[in-house]
Amino acid sequence: MRITKILAALAVAAAAVPAAASAQSLVNGGFETNVPGSFNTYSAGDTGLVGWNIDSGSVDHIGGYWQPASGSGSLDLSGYNAGTISQSFSTIAGQQYAVDFAMAVNPGGYTSNPILSVIATGGQAATYSFLGGPNSASNMGWELNRYLFTALGTTTNLSFSSLNNSVYGPALDDISVSSIAAAVPEPATWLTMIMGFGLIGMVLRQRGRKGAVAA
Questions:
Q1: Which pTM was predicted?
Q2: How far apart are CA 38 and CA 206, in angstroms?
Q3: Number of H helices, E strands in the chain
Q4: Strand locations in the chain (E)
Q5: What's the domain count of the chain?
Q6: Are residues 58 and 42 in the same domain?
Q7: What is the C-alpha to C-alpha distance for residues 39 and 75, in angstroms, rounded to an integer?
């Protein structure tokens, strides 16, 4: 009975150790730099979208045209046509990372089909749909999504692509990257676990001595 209680306490201590995450440096992940009054359209090769490369097609940097997920800026991944943006950042080979982002859709052309693709060096492409139903410029219905990948080297390229080849594309905002790793227990947690194992050893030794005497 006593061992059962000790094991239960150790389980609680172990459960108190969360997964550690540390933020990575991503430039202009919320599209808050040089936010336009309404929107600006940038085509492949343009440098107006700070921190991001426009690899193909075109995108709209949105200001007051619709409600952002936060701040004052966001992005329509389809400008005149389907666009792709990318950014490279430092990583650690073999480390797992999470890419979190807010997603909606241009309210002028709602579709329930997959409309956005994400891929990072070392990861598989993943496709995301907007599930919120018809929205409006004043109520975009932003949804949070997460993409996971394991870095292959010291630099990773992250890209987002529209799958809607029209002027109505996926809306994108609040992109962030964080590393995911097993956390190191706090000193107090280590102490609790070590004491617990010590108590289990004492109980087992006492039982062994009692058994020897009884024999």
A1: 0.75
A2: 77
A3: 2, 12
A4: 19-23, 39-43, 53-56, 58-62, 74-76, 84-90, 96-105, 116-120, 126-128, 143-150, 155-162, 170-182
A5: 2
A6: yes
A7: 9
Q: Over the stretch 119-144, which tens digit does the pLDDT of each residue have?
A: 999 899 999 999 888 899 999 999 99
**Cα distance between residue 199 and residue 201, in whole Å:** 5
Answer yes or no: do 67 and 153 share one domain.
yes
Comparing C-alpha atoms, which of 76, 144, 88 is closest to residue 121? 88
Domain that holds residue 8: 2-14+185-214
Cα–Cα distance measured from residue 69 to residue 174, given in angstroms and rounded to the nearest whole number: 7
Q: Would you call 110 exposed, middle or buried from its count of C-beta atoms within 10 A (0-12, 13-18, 19+)? A: middle
Q: What is the pLDDT of residues 9-46, one digit of tens each?
A: 444 444 444 445 567 779 999 999 999 999 999 999 99
Integer angstrom CA distances of residue 77 from 60, 157, 205: 7, 17, 67
